[in-house]
Amino acid sequence: EYGTVKRITLPTDRETGRPRGFAFVEMEEDATEEKAIEALDGAEWMGRELRVNKAKPREPRNRSSGGGWS
Predict the structure, then answer these.
(1) What's the number of domains the chain is made of?
(2) Segments of the chain assigned E as strands
(3) Is 69 part of a structural domain of the chain?
């Protein structure tokens, strides 16, 4: 309906193995990506409101901060 899905990733909790409640969906074409975001953001699915947006790249983790031993 919104284009061809290239890949779906469902992150899971490391301890329980259960899904964390969100997914990453990669589309074949960028144009279909925007169409899917516009159409599905705010839509209801299985009694829940979907939040659909474009993922941002992860910030590199700084190993020297965060408390712990030095």
Answers:
(1) 1
(2) 5-9, 24-27, 44-45, 48-49
(3) no
Residue 57 is assigned to a structural domain of this protein: no
In terms of residue numbers, what domain contains 41? 5-49
- 37 within domain boundaries: yes
Q: Give me the amino acid identity at 59.
A: E
Spell out the alpha helix ranges (H) of the chain.
30-40
pLDDT tens per residue across span 19-68: 999 999 999 998 899 999 999 999 999 999 999 999 888 888 776 655 66
- CA–CA distance, 12 with 10 (Å, rounded to integer): 6
Q: Model's pTM, two decimal places?
A: 0.68
